[in-house]
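BUG: 3D viewer hangs when loading the predicted structure for this chain

Environment: internal workstation, default settings.
Expected: structure renders.
Actual: progress bar stalls at 90%.

Input used:
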Amino acid sequence: MTKDEFNKYAMNLYEFTEYPAVKYKILFSLFDVPYEDEKLIELRKDFLKSDIVEEMAQTQDIHGGWGKLRSKDYSVKAKIPTSQTGINRCLYIGLTIEDRDILFMVNEYLLSFLDGTNEEKLYDKNERANPWQMAEICNLIEAIQPNTPECDEIYNQWLYIANRAYESGEYSYEADRAAQHEVFFTREDRLVPMQSELLLKRRELLGPEIENAMLRHLGGLANQTGYFWDKIPSKLPEDFKNNKMRRWFHTFNYINQFQGSELYLKDAVDWLQEQIGENGLWDWGTQTKDPWGYFGYFSCNRHYQHNRVVDCTMEILSFLKKYLDNNS
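C-alpha cells produced before the viewer hung:
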C-alpha cells in the first residue's frame, strides 16, 4: 500500500461525513496536520463542543477517571465501564492534554497511583499484579504526556528486563525470569508479560535490535496463535462482513505496534484493501457488543447517519496509518 492510496482512502471518509469529530480525527491523526494549523484550530472549536467530547466530560468523575481503573463495577450501570476504557477513548478520538481539562484530570488521576495518594485499591492477588498494573498506568501516562519523569523508574526497569530477555537477539524465558526476579523481587515462574507497548513509547531508548527481536517473538507468536480474541492474520475469513470482524483488530494492532510489522501483516493489509466498498469506504456489517468496553466509535447518537460505516472505516484507517509509519 502506498501513501497516495492511503490519502485517497482517508479523503473519501473526510468528504463522506460532516461530523466534526470525524473530520478533526482525519486531519489531526491521519494527515498529521500540525496542532497549530489554522484550519485545525477552527475545526477544533466544533470538535471540542461535539457530543462525543461532551460525553467524556460529563461522565468523568471528580477523581479524573470513569470508575475503577481496570475492573468493571457491575453494580453501576455505566456506558464507559472502566477508566482505562475512557482514557483510551479520549486518546482514540484525538483529545490531547491541551484540550479542555479532561486529559489533564486523567493525568493527575494516573499520577496519584504512582505516588500512592489514590485511594482506589488495585488488584493484588499475586506478586505479579503490582508491577503489571504500574506498567499499564505508565503506558497511559506516556500516551498523554510523553517522557513524564514520574515514569522514568518503571520504564527503566522494563528496559533492563527487555535488554536481558532479548540480549542474544532471540527471546530467553530464563533471562526474562532472572531479570524480573531481580527487579521486582518475585519468585514465581509465571512472569509479568513483556510490556512492549510501554517500551515503544520511548522507542529511541529501546533500540532497533531489541524491537526487531520483540517483533519476531511477540508479533510472530500473535501471528501464529492469535492475540486476545484468537484471530490470526494467517487465517483470514472469506467474508469480510462478519459480525465479529472488529475483534481481529486486537491481533492486528498488537503486531502493528512494531516497526517492520509488514513481516506478518502484509497479507492482511492487501486483504483489507480488497474489501473496500464501491463508495471507497469499509463496513463491518452487523456490529456486536464487545464485552471489554469497546471505545472506537464517533457518535453518542445511535441515529447518526452512517455510524457503522464511519466507525469501521476509521478503525481500518487508523490501523493503516500506523502500518505505513512503521513500514516506511
